[in-house]
Amino acid sequence: MKIKSAEVIVSSPDRNFVTLQITTEDGLTGLGDATLNGRELAAAAYLEHHVVPLLIGRDAHRIEDTWQFLYRGAYWRRGPVTMAAIAAVDVALWDIKAKAAGMPLYQLLGGASRDGIRAYGHASGRDIPEILDSVREHLELGYKAIRIQTAVPGIDAVYGVAAQPSAGGTRYDYEPAQRAALPAEEDWDTRAYLRHIPTVFEAVRNEFGPELPLLHDGHHRMTPIEAARLGKSLEPYDLFWLEDCTPAENQDALRLVRQHTTTPLAIGEVFNTVFDYQTLIREQLIDYVRSAVTHTGGISAMKKILDYAAQYQIKSGIHGPTDISPVGMAAALHLDLAIHNFGIQEYMRHGDLTNEVFQQSFSFKDGYLHPGEQPGLGVELDLDAAAAHPYTPAYLPFNRLKDGTIHDW
Description:
By secondary structure, the chain is α/β, with parallel strands linked by helices. Helix content is 35%, strand content 18%.
């Protein structure tokens, strides 16, 4: 089954997405997601100019061979642009293979290991009453696990807080990328953050009790010893996980965090290959793998990482924000359903315009997701709707400390 054509579609319904559509000579189509938030055109150009010409005439069924060809054949390996492009090809080929088989993709990965996929939502607020209201809203939507993000007194704008004013204006929902010519500058104070966060979780636990799974994202902003302090201070509130507590490119840093806290740790949304996880998994320094299928080489590569993690009782927590398109989200759900060491799935609802462009079969009910039974991924792209929403420049913000130093955002 030869590949006849491959098209890169960049569209901006609600936000920017990069989609690859591969078509075979017998008319089957497959979709892949290569969205790289704030650097979308880099991934699109990599695909269009360097990858698509290599795909024409290749056997669409040879997924592993194509993956290795794109990874090893370029010589320059790894990195977010390369791995997002490879992921788009990989997922599109899996979509085609499952359509050819007449099965939902998860069946080709070994079939379902569970009936549904537990998801967590994102609650946030500018103060504690607003956070409590946000948690109630998410419980009413059906979520049975909730991430808690909060504004911090003395800091003007903080990642993950919906509708909080920032230098670039009010954010769209929880999406911090702002449609502007330049990125917005935000501020940061780690000591103020470390003082405030435990009081927030105390209030949430007092209001909602001990059973509700609670999560929190530190977003790479702490040093290892600061992360250890936060993890220890949050132990009384029994978090499901503390995410990205320190920049984990320094994998050895997680040893220090582990020595000081029993709060479970989730790491990896900015990782791109298994090599980023080698020490973390082998030494059991984390509890959840946070990479996205979209940014980590696709279904083929992500499954291998999770199989490696399973040897050490480490579970999945696949990245699922709105900068992962419905195509990337569907790929994650098929993998979630099939693997044994599933942990939890991040789920942010896309906007109405996005749902018009990407027609989806996956469902969310009573706190659980399911990819559906449609052959392939279960997502179809409306090309006319996509064309009605052209690319718009958008950047993620950046942080400065009070003395003007650039800090991890």
